[in-house]
Amino acid sequence: MADKQKVVSSKIKALQLFHQDGIIDMISGAILVNFGFDILNNNETTSLFTWIPIILLSSLKRKTTIPRLGYALLGGDEGQVKRWILYTAVGMTLTLMLLGIFILNNPFDLRNIFILPFPGNSQNLFGSLILAAACLLAGLLISLKRFYVYAAIALISGFISYLFLSIYFPIFLTAGVMIANGIRLMVTFMHAYPLESERKNNEK
């Protein structure tokens, strides 16, 4: 039993390390920025530009993260690392699909279905709830505490937006925080885990 717990713990640590490069934050932020523009442009479906960051996830991980860490630090299981990338992409895709259905297409006419105690746009609340739930789920599954912060930002800004502001406010705010923090994490990660060529140049 103790050995099994150690294996699980080591996998969680490897997964956390795999996502300390800030790529998941920057890509999530880029998706939300593009989605915000889809709202501004009154699109009924998400644009191609909104989907492109998800497509780039695997490439960025293979070119930036894996060469710096190596499979040994990630548990030595190349198949597991591929699954981590796949699961992340699937999670982003599902979140984007739900946001698109409830915010852009709005087939259920949320404004008229739900009567809330305060006047406002119920789509704002549903959009922020979807985004907050996705961030919370990512925080739980990947054990990344910063995603709890993103969830809180999405939820609070969504409620404020419901009362006073436009529907795209929580989208852009959450995206801005994600991208800024992602850049910070990327810089820290690249300094902490330089490429072999960079390491040799530093030693000269």
Number of strands: 0
Q: Return the average pLDDT rounded to an integer.
A: 86
Main sheet properties: none
Kindly report how far apart the N and C termini lie: 48 Å
- Fraction of residues in β-strands: under 5%
Low-confidence parts: none
Question: What is the N-to-C order of secondary-structure elements (H for helix, E for strand)?
Answer: HHHHHHHHH
How many separate helices?
A: 9
Question: Helix- and strand-based class?
Answer: mainly alpha
List descriptors:
204 residues; mainly alpha; 9 helices; 80% helix; elongated
Write up what this structure looks like.
The relative contact order is 0.15. The chain has 9 helices and no strands. The chain has one domain (2-203). Helix 2 (23-40) packs antiparallel against helix 8 and helix 3 packs antiparallel against helix 4 (78-105). The chain is mainly alpha-helical and 204 residues long. It has helices at 2-18, 23-40, 48-73, 78-105, 110-113, 122-142, 146-163, 169-192, 196-203. The mean pLDDT is 86. The longest helix has 28 residues, at 78-105.
How is the secondary structure organized here?
Layout: H1 2-18, H2 23-40, H3 48-73, H4 78-105, H5 110-113, H6 122-142, H7 146-163, H8 169-192, H9 196-203
Helix pairs in contact: 2-3, 2-4, 2-8, 3-4, 4-6, 6-7, 7-8
Give me a quick take on this structure.
The protein is mainly alpha-helical and 204 residues long. The chain contains nine helices and no strands. It has one domain (2-203).
